[in-house]
Amino acid sequence: MDFYEELSATYDRMTRFESRLEKEMAILRLWVDRYSIKSVLDVACGTGLHVIALRKLGVDATGVDLSDSMIQKARANSRANSVEARFITSSMTNLRDTIRNEFDAVLCLGNSIPHLLNKRDLIGALGSFASVLKPDGLLLLQLLNYKRILASGNRIVGIHSDGDLEFVRFYDFLDTFVRFNILEIDHSGESISHRLHSTKLYPYSSDELIEALSETTFRDVELFGSMNRNVFDSSDSTDLVISARNSHTRV
Fold it and tell me: pLDDT tens across 31-53, in order?
């Protein structure tokens, strides 16, 4: 959580929040229309990009995130975009403790799943997602295709400048995990200053996620190479997108 607490002030500049909003609306519309989605819980919602996009599409969207600073930014972004949305500070593994509603879909996008560092926590999160989904509700996961990343050995994720701020994103490849780093360089002062933000991730493969889903209440698992529903190629696709349906019926 500290990683995102530290990043919250400049996160939107790094991720190009304003310029991405229209594009994300178009992508999410594909899923909303295909599955007739009326209500969504966006887990690990960050500063609210997808919740705001969904609200602009007419979907009743709620966002949750473990970082209170990110939630505060999400509320500010919602107001700035003239959107009313509910944002809650919550862990993805304990959603039922703070949320009583059931949703047509649960989204966990933006490479959030790799923050779950072991199978126990992954299974716990999947069970938590199921607990707030309607029967036959849609689960949509989006993360990077780590099989491709590990095979390439390319440590540089991206370099992006916004005004006097520059962001260099890169990996350290560890034995089991990946360390994700963001070097934030500030050119605004008389001398250049910088901050380094780092967090550990587990590089889940498609097989590991399919196996975990099979041990929970999810079925009808499908893999895609992007949120545009392109075919998934484990050696070439940049993203791994997984959809599944909830077979759990609450009594």
Answer: 999 999 999 999 999 999 999 99
